[in-house]
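Recall from the previous lesson that a structure prediction takes nothing but the amino acid sequence as input. Here we apply that procedure to 1-phosphofructokinase from Serratia marcescens. The sequence below is the only information supplied.
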Amino acid sequence: LKDLGIDVTVGGFLGKDNQDGFQLLFSDLGIANRFQVVPGRTRINVKLTEKDGEVTDFNFSGFEVTPQDWDRFVSDSLSWLGQFDMVAVSGSLPAGVDPDAFTDWMTQLRAKCPCIIFDSSREALVAGLKA
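The prediction returns the following tokens.
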């Protein structure tokens, strides 16, 4: 989107232990960074694709979000997310985030920004669709 001249802001949780590469990329691309830094490492996912098209996924574990981290994220994000015409919510729930709390946040987000692109799976998908 940024390459198309569209202003982009990113947010969520970012692990302190490996934040530098992410922070540098956001800065280099001119992307506004609203990530909340928490202890631990941001998880990465690796896909290996065989010549026959078979894909193997390696989904590494990441940090755990405390209830205090989540509460701060909810308060902070709801104070600025309403300024956007569109919000993309993607990925899985970080360890420590209660699916019901995620549903509550998504419900509040919908009241502020009616155009939400939602891409998730498992418990995060179920929790988000409840909103």
